[in-house]
Amino acid sequence: MNDGSISFPEGSLVSVLTAQPLDRLLDYKAPAGGCLEGAFVIVPLGPRKVTGVIWGSGQGGFDPKKIRSVSEVLDVPPMRAEMRDFLQRVADYTLTPLTAMFRLATRTPGLGDSPSMRRVLRRGAGEPDRVTEPRMRVLDALDASDGQLLAIGELCDLAGVSNSVIKGLVKQGAIDEVETPRDSPYLQLDPALPGKPLTDDQAQAADLLKDGIAKGSYGTTLLKGVTGSGKTEVYLEAVAACLEAGRQALVLLPEIALTSEFLTRVETRFGAKPAEWHSGVTMTERRRCWRMVAEGGAQLVVGARSALFLPFQNLGLIVVDEEHDSSYKQEDGVLYNARDMAVLRASICKAQVVLASATPSLESWQNTQAGKYRRVDLTARFGTAVLPEMAALDMRVEDMPSSSWISPSLRAAVTKRLEAGEQSLLFLNRRGYAPVTVCRACGHQIGCPHCDARMVEHRFQKRLMCHQCGESIALPEVCPSCKVEGKLAPVGPGVERLQEEAVQAFQDARVEVLSSDLFGSAHALKERIEAIAAGEADIIIGTQLVAKGHNFPLLTLVGVIDADLGLQGTDMRAAERTFQLMRQVAGRAGRAERPGVALLQTFQPEHPVVRAILSGAEEDFWQAEADEREALGMPPFGRMAGIILSSTDVAQVFEFGNVMARQRAALDRIGAELYGPAPAPIARIRGRHRVRLLVKAAKNAPLQSALREWLAQFRVSGSLRISVDIDPQSF
Ligand code: ADP
Ligand code: ZN
Predict the structure, then answer these.
(1) ipTM value of the model?
(2) Residues 17/40, Cβ–Cβ less than 8 Å
């Protein structure tokens, strides 16, 4: 367990990292008995006591008499040197205070509350000086316990004595107190259990991944395979190899709703469930998980992006499933991309990374082209399943009645599926009933009072809601602008409105909406998904929730209601996103023995992105995208950072942004370009106005240090906030 950490003798000066908002380490004296570098401790801070971790030797420079001592060393495995290194490097990369990283790495309250060791009693070599009736009962009870280890309280109960009786016997050596590890709450996974027999293709891919594990060194592999090709089956072989090698493994999933299906697969493969880490897990469970990960008792963790900051003792493999998914980017607090930080963490602890996707991000694709990542392809679907046929439905020639979104051609296709007893999915990436509510008297569109966003009608709840801030109001009768009554009308479709149309159009069909806001809990959602997969619906209407990884064996038709939706706007990533989403959704069809069809309703069938989606000429698509980005020096060929300024005062943000744009010498020195200030992608949230400055630099430019130097010139005041977003999602 010794990873080269220094031990500090009592009284020596140590620096401690806490979660205090001031971005600095605090000096303390090591406590009686000394402490290890990385040890979790309690330190006095003003009148309070806070948790911290020993980061290194103290910096000094304060009056030594004023330096206080560490109050307590917690009974928690110390933070390993590689973890400290990782936190420091994430902080440096994302320009985040190290103190904020501490919070990420210890996001489990009551760190010292569930010690891994418990004190138990056993018969000692000594004899009691005096044999009394209670003492006899204690010794008899202990002898009768027959090797079962008893804690002091348990023995008190058994013998019917107070604990002073037992303490007396301990003092005389008749009973010894010993420490023993608590039982692990997790069952052992057995990597030696046989997996499913793999196809040649799959076996070849699995062997490549296993080679990487055997080397015990760092490496990243992009595992690219169409949905249903067996990527999960293949990377579970890498997990097996990692566990065989006695190292821990981590599998990141983009969506909590996917975990339970995955847990079951792990149980089938390895005979026990892995540890789980995400926001749906209780605090007690999380505390145990954190602890067991640190002690090595959790062999495999399945979790959301924050699982990357768990204190693994010996991490050998990180799998990032659906690596292209934008939910790997944390958009709050510490702005990091879990996919990229997984690669960083693996490089520090000499682990392997597997990035799995049917539609990789342009970044990962480019990294394989450049030879930084290996690439393994699974080209065929497993078994008899074949990829869905894809076709465009040209909406310019479809005969569409008003307030209708299902074209006659799509309708005919659904009817055919209904007759065959198969399922259809109608995909529309819009929650609610209608995205816009407009007054037919004055043309006013109802917007959120706090955000730069329209209020979305949710008819089931009879409310208008803001999808940015959650503001919700009862559906008004009267236009808030012109006060005319009864003229408010929904414009455009959301999934709820589409459902209305589907129920009308397909009278006997069972229509079901799958949208994240319609379920109270991840559990309720999971149950519905399972029921639907088992055939409890004929037509599924879904948002992007259904695009991710679920298996619907009876589904043979996917109808995309608005394939052009993602192509509007100016975001450089729009094409990539649309391509990924459309291919993912289409991949839901025909996963079992029945072949599938995907029909895309579009007004621009000759748009290059739509054509690429239909033809499936992926490599050409990536290459064209890459060429375009390269010509513009955009990621992944250049680097970008977004600086978001926000304030309740709109004049202040722009003024401040202009000042920052003028004092840009530090950026000029690295040849970086600066755009803005301009309204941020979401220009107002929760009453705060937001403007964005975008910095673009060459790939090898020292972007972080230039940003640091540039930002250091400005002092924020009032309600102004600055946040730095390295590698922003939209640009
Ligand atoms: P992906 O992760 O690429 O979408 P999966 O690993 O989920 O693909 O595989 C799709 C389906 O095919 C799953 O139901 C899986 O159990 C099954 N499958 C894949 N490979 C095999 C195999 N070698 N033997 C048996 N079933 C397999
Ligand atoms: Zn709002």
Answers:
(1) 0.95
(2) no
